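Appendix B: a complete holo record

For completeness, this appendix reproduces one full record from the ligand-bound portion of the collection. The bound molecule is S-adenosylmethionine. The inputs are the chain sequence and the ligand SMILES; the output is the full three-dimensional arrangement of the complex, encoded as structure tokens. No fields have been trimmed.
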Amino acid sequence: MKWTEISVQTSNEAVDAISHILEAKGSKGVKIEDAADYKKLRAGKYGEILDLAEIPHIESGAIVTGYYPETENIEEIVTQIKAQTAQLSEFGLNPAPATVIQKPLEETEWQTAWKKYYHPVRVTRYLTVVPEWEDYQKTDTAEKILKLDPGMAFGTGTHPTTKLCLQALEMYLRGGEALLDVGTGSGVLSIAASKMGARDIQAFDLDQVAVDSAMENLKLNSDVQNVKIKANNLLTGITTQADMIVANILAEIIVPLVPQAKACLKPGGLFITSGIIKDKLAEVETELEKYHFEVIEVLQMKDWRAIVAKKPSEKE
Ligand SMILES: C[S@@+](CC[C@H](N)C(=O)[O-])C[C@H]1O[C@@H](n2cnc3c(N)ncnc32)[C@H](O)[C@@H]1O
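The structure of the chain with S-adenosylmethionine bound, as generated:
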């Protein structure tokens, strides 16, 4: 379907009022570009491969944009938006410059616009995460390619918490392991573990959106045939004896996972936990020690920490 985009260039103070005008004229939502918001922007939870410098932004004021299907009488809507925007000064709001611009838009363009900020990223020595829509050629024979559509789930591979897990997996997997991935998100760690040689992988997530996303990503990596994904709360009800468990979840959630991880690991098995902000490291280490895990190493990137801990072998 064809759509028309109607944008109002305005001041920061008139953003809410103009959003309301655009929605009242039939836009199902509005896009707000506000110079003040950009100044506050940080790469965050879902913005892992965003390079802030690459994001187009306005230097001052704001632009509010609404979207209208071709079935609407656009000229009439534009006239009403101009009139109502001009009236805002009567309510003590300065809408200047109050310029109204209309332009045609293809539906697919705005559904996929965010994709241009995601690019292939070499996340470990051997692993490159490649967005599904990118055509990428290996740069050397040792490089492993992980195809991913980040979609709605966490896990583009480039967030420090994910990178730490990927680095630990690359360092500690020897091949042939049974592995559990708790909080799989996009499935990135399970798929990577399979490519690094793990034999039998079970992935869990509480969120069905993540489970669906992980299944889709599995299909993008047709060489990976040994990952099973299901919805589950941590390791509740899981009786598998694994060689390795990886969990990139927040510290608060890792704490209750520790006894479950101990029960699901073979003697001498490794528990890799990430998602730990540096202030919470001691809390997680204390819990691991309480269950007689030996902390082998703590990896760090920016403010994030990951722990590699070993369940004692029977002789210890
Ligand atoms: C930070 S993301 C990690 C995603 C991916 N494993 C990665 O490393 O990029 C944490 C994931 O844990 C999931 N999660 C949170 N609480 C959970 C729980 N109690 N049981 C299972 N999964 C959980 C969230 O839905 C989310 O997908």
